[in-house]
Amino acid sequence: MVVSATEYASRIGVDVLQAGGNAVDAAIATGFALAVTHPAAGNIGGGGFMVIRFPDGSVTAFDYREKAPLAANPRMFLDEDGEYSSRIHHNSHKAVGVPGTVAGFVKAHESYGTGDWSRLVEPSVRLARDGFAVMPGLARSLQYALARMEPYPASIAAFSKDGEPYQVGEILRQPELASTLERIMLQGHDGFYKGETARLIAAEMQRGGGLITEEDLAIYRARERTPITGSYRGYDVISMPPPSSGGTILVEMLNILEGFDLASMGHNSSAYIHHVTEAMRRAYLDRARFLADPAYADVPVERLTSKDYAAELRRSIEPHRATPSNPLDIELPHESPHTTHYSVVDAAGMAVAVTYTLEAGYGSKIVVPGAGFLLNNEMGDFNPQQGLTDSLGHIGSEPNLARPGQRMLSSMTPTILAKEGELVAVVGSPGGRTIINSVLQVVLNIIDFEMPIQDAVNASRLHHAWLPNTVRVEQGGIDEATKQALQEMGHRMIVRGRQGLTHCIMIDPLTGERIGAADPRDTDAVAVGY
Ligand code: DON
Predict the structure, then answer these.
(1) CB count, 10 Å around CB of 220?
(2) 185 and 95 in a common domain
(3) Alpha carbons 49 and 304: distance in angstroms, whole number
(4) What one-character DSSP code corresponds to residue 352?
(5) What Cα–Cα distance (Å) separates residue 186 from each residue in 40, 121, 218?
(6) CATH of the domain at 296
(7) Which residues form the domain of 112?
(8) Is residue 450 located within the same domain as residue 508?
(9) Which residues is 514 bridged to in the sheet?
(10) Domain membership flag for residue 270
(11) Are 28 and 163 in the same domain?
């Protein structure tokens, strides 16, 4: 079973499974196919995380997060006048981090894949070269992206018909991307990080005032890491460690909530939302304080994920009153809603959860001329400037500042659940800082409310991130009386569009059947099994 943001990518993953590949092989092939068919977030110019659970119950993870180039420094987002510039930080060649995806896929394949590498890339070479019919969601998102690609002629050329947006059903061909994928197919890691591709990236960086050099590319390495593991009401929770904040904060919130009888409160009742919000508030404060690349900061993961610490935090929650977040009403750094999560389970029961991203939708909007792929704007996930914490929405805490070679803090939370040695579910989501909360709620829906996976995915979600001090609920998520009750407890309620795209898989405990659940918030997403 493969559940991803496009049917093309899910099918390509399933083809690999049917030909005898394992879940890691399928995850890699799906990832390349998303780079072709879901350009908003699928990528080779970005980075991400892969969490794996093997049929024997052992687990591992791959970190192929982007990193800051060697020339980076904490003051790099300031303009000539020494003022912080959101444009430089989020929307410029300096916003581009050294990409990690290809290194991660190659390393995962070398470590746990089977058979020939080239067969995992070849279907995407073809898809890019021959083209594919544009889906409704893609047509909508390309239209939106095109306006923002104006400064970059190579981007307009790659994603429009001479400036005219593609309509649903028209064929999108990406010949330059096909050539880049072909180099990756033939040369693996070096097909991206050395030679032609690396030269083209470095040339575009130089042209646009970016910092990434051929040396930055040559020294990039993906890392295999030990996942965060926690437990929740008898279930094992396996998720991503730093440089993602995802797994640590997810386990911290679950540990706090384990002490409350959520099921008896009722799903999305005022009591439930209050207690979940208070867990979120406390864990997200820790995220802002402590979480960063562990090679550059001392992240107290063990304490943050311990049951004792959670008990301490739980005691500070009042049953009917919101805790103030902070006298300073500041916001955490901007993170935009584009990224993609996909889930894979093979016939043997190997499970793979992948979340990867370009940061914003279509990343930096910069297509590398001659190479046909989009570059990320992941440097935006670093804190803007040392000491700059103000009411305009900036946080300047030390751990997550841009330093040479540092990986920027992420919220991506690819997660696997198991119980008594058996695989239960594969979960994850896009959505910037909302990601951890979306994953949390799918987990609560599965475990506390015993929902079938599609209901667990569909159910309305909420978000609180310590700051801003607001509870955001999805449109239609709660009724007026619930909202009022929460306001009376001191919560500031905001209703807004949608939160997360959780493409999940659950195993039927009786039959062992893999049940795929694409998130209906994403109209192009499809679960494919065989
Ligand atoms: O790594 C992160 O947490 C963010 N760059 C992810 C961005 C994102 O999810 C945008 N989302 N939908």
Answers:
(1) 25
(2) yes
(3) 21
(4) E
(5) 26, 9, 17
(6) 3.60.20.40
(7) 10-50+62-221+348-372
(8) yes
(9) 507
(10) yes
(11) yes
35 and 125 in a single domain? The answer is yes
Q: Which ligand 1 atom lies nearest to the CA of residue 336?
A: 10
Same domain flag for 428 and 285: yes
Ligand 1 centre from 340 Cα, in Å? 9
Instruction: Establish whether 339 is a catalytic residue.
Output: yes
Give the residue from 505, 491, 504, 426 showing the smallest Cα distance to 462.
Answer: 491
Does 390 reside within a domain? no
Q: DSSP 3-state assignment of 190?
A: helix
Catalytic residue among 339, 340, 355, 357: 339
Q: What's the number of domains the chain is made of?
A: 2
User: Do 125 and 36 have their domain in common?
Assistant: yes
Asked if residue 137 and residue 188 are part of one domain, the reply reads yes
| CA–CA distances in Å: residue 530 to residues 14, 32, 514, 527 | 7, 21, 10, 10
Does any domain span residue 404? no
Q: Which residues in the chain land under pLDDT 70?
A: 326-337, 388-396
Nearest one of 415, 463, 59 to 247, comparing CA atoms: 415
pLDDT, residue 16, reads 98
String of b and e for 350-387 (b: at least 16 CB within 10 Å)? bbbbbbbbbbbbbbbbbbbbbbbbbbbbbbbbbbbbee
- Assigned token pair, 315: 């005691």
Euclidean distance between CA atoms 530 and 528, whole angstroms: 7
Extract the tokens encoding 243.
């440089």
404-427 confidence digits (pLDDT tens): 999 999 999 999 999 999 999 999
Task: Fill in the amino acid letter for 422.
Answer: E
Q: Which atom of ligand 1 is nearest to the CA of 380?
A: 5
Q: Which amino acid is at 92?
A: S
- β-sheet bridge partners, residue 48: 64, 356
Tokens of 335: 């993170």
Residue 457 burial (10 A CB sphere; 0-12, 13-18, 19+)? buried
Choose the residue to mutate in 435, 437, 463, 521 for probing ligand 1, maximizing ligand atoms within 8 Å of C-beta: 435
Query: Among 344, 469, 430, 389, which Cα is nearest to 52's?
Result: 344
Could you please report the per-residue DSSP string of 410-458? B----EEEEETTEEEEEE---STTHHHHHHHHHHHHHHTS---HHHHHH
Q: Which residues line ligand 1 (CB under 6 A)?
A: 335-339, 357, 359, 378, 381, 410-412, 430-432, 435
CB 35 within 8 A of CB 28: no
pLDDT, tens digit, for every residue of 202-254?
999 999 999 999 999 999 999 999 999 999 999 999 999 999 999 999 999 99
Q: Residue 348 has which token pair? A: 């043997």
Residue 108 lies in a domain: yes
- Which ligand 1 atom minimizes the distance to the CA of 411? 3
Query: Which of 63, 240, 335, 410 to mutate to test ligand 1, by most ligand atoms within 8 A of the CB atom?
Result: 335
CA distance 365 to 392: 25
Nearest one of 333, 432, 446 to 392, comparing CA atoms = 333
Same domain, 241 and 307: yes
